Amino acid sequence: MSKHDEARRAFLVGTAIGAGAAASVALVPGALAQHQPPQPAPANTAVPDHDDHSGGGYGAWLNGEESAAIAAFAERLMPGEPGKPGATDAGVLNYIDLALAGAYADQRDFYRRGIAQLEAYCRKTHSAPFAQLPAALQDEVITALEQGKAEGFTWPSAQAFFNTVRTHTIEGMFADPVYGGNKNFAGWRLVGFPGAHPAFSAADMQSKEPFAGGVLIGLQAQAPSRRT
Predict the structure, then answer these.
(1) How far, in Å, CA of 76 to CA of 78, rounded?
(2) CB–CB of 21/27 below 8 Å?
(3) What single string gives the DSSP state of each residue in the chain?
(4) Given pLDDT bands bounded at 50, 70 and 90, which one contains residue 4?
(5) Which residues lie closer than 8 Å to 30 by C-beta, 6 or more apart?
């Protein structure tokens, strides 16, 4: 992993901890989401038709090309390496896709148009969609978005799209697995968060070391069982 990747990983982990994403098992991702109000699309902006995603063989909301773009984008924001899970390992794409099909349905148009503008920028600048670019060029594109220098973005703006995908990547890494991300507690293991254990000893509460006792437990495991 390059120093650039290490710095990005450290930044996202620090941001997540600072925002409380790994501090509470009961985190509701909507508390961290950057909701964008719907706005009319410019007349010259072409976007794919998403009226019917049934039977497409893709996810809950995103189609194949969109899924590839978001998966690659999230992985560059939170790159994995041996022994340290990244966005792909944690199922961040699944988290975002499920959120857009449900709790974040109001952001579908934001994502739809943001991805379309991202792909148009990449094809114009680098003659290939984002997911097919080498990592170095993907990083250049992400930096251009973050700094508001990527041309062709109207609504959402380049910076707004970057900030939202980054926020949702953090959520997908560190929110409770019940929401579709943090697969196999990858994010919690990364930061040493113990999960929803019913009780901690006095020594556990005082210790500054990551909790190593017992198994990780999420919200789904805490739900009362249904009697038939």
Answers:
(1) 5
(2) yes
(3) --HHHHHHHHHHHHHHHHHTTTT-TT--GGGT-------PPPTT------S--TTSSS-SS--HHHHHHHHHHHHHHS--BTTB--HHHHTHHHHHHHHHHTTTGGGHHHHHHHHHHHHHHHHHHHSS-GGGS-HHHHHHHHHHHHTT--TT--SS-HHHHHHHHHHHHHHHHHS-GGGS-SGGGHHHHHHT-----S---HHHHH--SPP-SS----HHHHSPPPP-
(4) low
(5) 103, 104
More confident residue, 134 or 205: 134
Residue 164, Cβ neighbours under 10 Å: how many? 21
CA 71, CA 165: separation in Å to the nearest integer?
Answer: 10
| Model pLDDT for residues 180-206, shown as the tens digit of each residue | 999 999 999 888 887 766 666 778 777
Pair of tokens at residue 18: 């600072």
- Model pLDDT for residues 135-153, shown as the tens digit of each residue: 999 999 999 999 999 999 9
Tokens standing for residue 117: 């503008």
Cβ neighbours of residue 12 under 8 Å, at least 6 residues apart? 77, 78, 166, 169, 170, 173
| Mean pLDDT across the chain | 79
- The tokens describing 119, both together, are 């792909």
pTM of the model: 0.73
State the residue for tokens 């984002």: 130
Q: What is the 3-state secondary structure (H, E, C) of 154-175?
A: CCCCHHHHHHHHHHHHHHHHHC
